[in-house]
Design goal:
By secondary structure, the chain is mostly helical. It has one domain (1-98). It has one helix at residues 6-138. The longest helix is centred in the middle third of the chain and has 133 residues, at 6-138.
Amino acid sequence: MRQLSAGEIAGLIAAVAFVLLVGFLAVPLVKLGRTLDETSRLVRGVADGTTPLLGEVTSTVTSANAQLTRVDAITANAQQVTSNVAALSGIFAATLGGPVVRLAAFSYGVRKALSARRKGEVGKRVKAEMRSSRRGGTR
């Protein structure tokens, strides 16, 4: 066997140190590669799961828009009915309101007059009976 010179021994030590350094650095690089692979799978899974959800969301929004269109039509019809009822109420008040109020006032006046007349007749009868009873009782 031949003897190694100091330079060769130093080179051999440097080569072994380099191999150890590469070995220590290779382990984290392999783990980092696995982590990136898992991340890729996870992103792919999320994308695969999200695509159907987006389709469902799109159909739900479309359905909601159709329902809102119907509600808008119903609201417009209700507003039209309300304005028609208001107009009809105004027409009723203008055409029948005055005469009905006059008729009610007239009937109230007639009732009051008849009531006063009855009271007057009853009062006259009472007075007449009282007079006759006084006349008949004093004689």
